[in-house]
Amino acid sequence: MTEPAGADPGRPAPSGGRGYLRIATEEAFAPPELITLGRDRIDKRAYDDPGFLSLVGYYAGARSERAAFVFDRLQDLGERRLADMDAAGIDRQVISLTAPGTQVLEPGDAAAIAALANDRLAEACRRHPERFSGLTAIAPQDPAGAAREIERGHRELGFNGVIINSHTKGEYLDDRKFWPIFEAAEALGTPVYLHPTSPPRTMIGPLLEAGLDGAIYGFAVETGMHVLRIITSGVFDHFPALKLVVGHLGEALPFWLFRLDYMHAAGVKAGRYEAMRPIAAKPSEYLRRNVWVTTSGMAWEPAIMFCRQVLGPDRVLYAMDYPYQYAPDEVATQDSLPLSPGELKAFFQTTAEEVFGL
Ligand code: 1DF
Ligand code: MN
Q1: What is the pLDDT of residues 225-268, one digit of tens each?
Q2: Which of the residues 1, 30, 50, 90 could staple to 78 if both were Cys, CB 3.0 to 4.6 A apart?
């Protein structure tokens, strides 16, 4: 990194005259150490997880223009990132550890990488306080340690939420062993961003066979299911103030609200599944009450307006998904949404400020 030490308040955000700041809320980074570790595991054939090999193998191989573009930018927390933000008119990024992050690693490595990633990110946020905010990375493999790291991230590092890259080696957060993570986040009033990763071995087969395991669709299938498992298992009955942020316009769940409610009620009534017990509200009610969705990778007016309609206008906020979908023209698309100036300001700025406590 080339930027000088010390904060740089002299570098202005590009918000000139627009009436709102553009805050992008699902923006990725990776410390070089994690990339080295990933490459090493691939070279040594240390993991045979098909999702890891598909995702990290592709980007770490950097054999295509896209992979090289993404990989360079993931590792930069300085001038290149700022220049890309300036060029796209992004005032602030809320930055988080990219998938799969720590969650494919052995517990010791995972906790060490989480701490290192958090220290690096905090340093960059201190250097560019007007441009960068961060989410706390954790190693869910050790839920008690993860809860402590959430506290450290919130209290000592000044972070504004927690990043979890979906499942951890095929395990899901509805498992009570993970609930110390939710307990910590709820107690601090800080949101959990549930971000996609490659589907686990038990799910990836037919997706991978067709090249559909990644961001094109497989991510959404897996992560949408994860959100549903959190809802139907009753997590939000235990943690009613827990805030969950979900990218890609809620991983398609808003489109399913009607059928989710109908079939959930039918399933509960029939007592068909041990795991599907009564919960206090309809699935759609938790999605409107505990969940916010971001527009990462979904710069599409009909879908954005639909989500605003069915979830509520205050539930939908802007994200770019840098550097995976660095498409400056998509910013203009969202500036042109059929919204009032106040609504547009909420969409790009104030909802993010409220949810993340920026
Ligand atoms: C991709 C997309 C990769 C997203 C990501 O992290 C990611 C991709 C590894 O295109 O391979 O965060 N995304 O959120 O859409
Ligand atoms: Mn993403």
Answers
A1: 999 999 999 999 999 999 999 999 999 999 999 999 999 999 99
A2: 1
